[in-house]
Amino acid sequence: MSKIGKDDFTAGFVPHHNHGSVDYTGMSAGHVHQCLDVTSPPIPTQDGGHVHYTEGYVLFEDGHTHHYRAYSGPAIPVGNGMHVHYYDFHTSEDVGHSHHVKGVDHPAPGTK
Q1: pTM (two decimals)
Q2: Which of 30, 31, 111 minimizes the C-alpha distance to 78?
Q3: Which of left, alpha, beta for 72 (phi over 0: left; psi -120 to 50: alpha)?
Q4: For residue 46, is it left (φ>0), alpha (ψ between -120 and 50) or beta?
Q5: Residue 33 per-residue DSSP state
Q6: Which residue has the higher pLDDT, 9 or 81?
Q7: DSSP β-ladder status, 43-44 and 82-90
Q8: Which of 18, 43, 52, 79 has the smallest count of CB within 10 Å of its CB?
Q9: What DSSP character marks residue 26?
Q10: What is the DSSP letter of 27?
Q11: What's the Rg (C-alpha) of the chain?
Q12: Which domain of life does the UniProt lineage start with (predicted)?
């Protein structure tokens, strides 16, 4: 079995990969939270692609945190044998508000 490293470009589907992301939530109640995330391994979809599941919490800011559970969009090839996923979700409501989180995760090997 060959190993695939972070700088190896790979066509097709790479099993057992995940994605990380570092982002900020949208502003709500006068503040933002940083969101550090690592997804689940790929979840196959009926069209032959895959998505990822994630759950966690945003970093403690303004005296509280928020939790989230979400699925990514499908794989988006970005060239050089890598792909990303778009995400768009809301955190739990805590202290009377929630936050919107959207963006693209870090590239991972594979084009599908």
Answers
A1: 0.86
A2: 111
A3: beta
A4: alpha
A5: -
A6: 81
A7: unpaired
A8: 79
A9: P
A10: P
A11: 15
A12: Bacteria
Average pLDDT over residues 23-32: 95
Percent of the chain with pLDDT over 90: 77
pLDDT of residue 5: 63
Question: Which amino acid would we find at residue 53?
Answer: Y
Residues facing 85 on adjacent strands: 75
Q: Is the model's pLDDT at 8 over the cut of 80?
A: no
Q: 69 or 6: whose pLDDT is higher?
A: 69
Mean per-residue pLDDT for 16-32?
Answer: 95
**Element housing 45 (H / E):** none
Tell the residue number behind the tokens 């790929």, with chain if given. 42
Instruction: Extract the tokens encoding 7.
Output: 């700088």
User: From the CB of residue 101, how many other CB atoms can be counted at a distance below 10 Å?
Assistant: 22
Q: How far apart are CA 87 and CA 85, in angstroms?
A: 7
Identify which has the larger pLDDT, 111 or 21.
21
Strand, helix or coil at 82?
strand
